[in-house]
Predict the structure.
Amino acid sequence: MHYAPHGVRETFQHYVGDLIYGTNDGILTTFAIVAGVAGGDLSANAVIIVGIANLFADGLSMGVGNYLSIRAHESALELQGLAEQEASPARHGLATFLAFAIAGAIPLLPYLIPGLEQPFIASMVAALVAQFSVGALRSLVTASRWWISGLEMLLLGAAVAAVAYGTGAAIAAALASGA
C-alpha cells in the first residue's frame, strides 16, 4: 500500500531512487558531452550549447520516462488486483528531472567562467568531486558506507567520462583523416 513520507529524511528516502538516478545521470551525461566535445577538439561554445540543450532535453526525457514507468507499474498492479504502491508518479518524474538539471549543470559551470584557462580540466574535477559527493551523501538515507558509495559513483563516472572522451577523440581523428 502507498506510504506518504513525513519529514525531510523520510521524503529523501522515499525519493532517493529518483534523486540518485537523476543526479547521477545528469552529471554523467553532461560530463560525457563535455568530454566528447573536448575529445573532438570542438569549441567551448559547442560545449555550452550542446550541454544546456542536454540539460533540458535529456532531463525532461528522464523525468517523463520515470513517470511513465511508474504509471505502467501501477497499471500492472491494478490488473493483478494488487494494491497501489505509488500515488504520485508525477512527483517522482519531477524529482528525476530537477535532480538531473541541477546536478547536470555542474560540469558546465567552468565553461561559463570568462577567461578560465582550462575549462575541461575544471569541468572534469567538478564532475568527479560531484560524483563522489553525491555517492557519499547517499549514505545519509541508506545503509551504505559513505566512502564506498562515494567511490562507486566516482569510479563509474570516471569510466563513462573516459569512454566519452576517447570516442570524441577517435571520431575527430577519423574525420580529420578523411575516413
Summary: The chain has five helices and no strands.
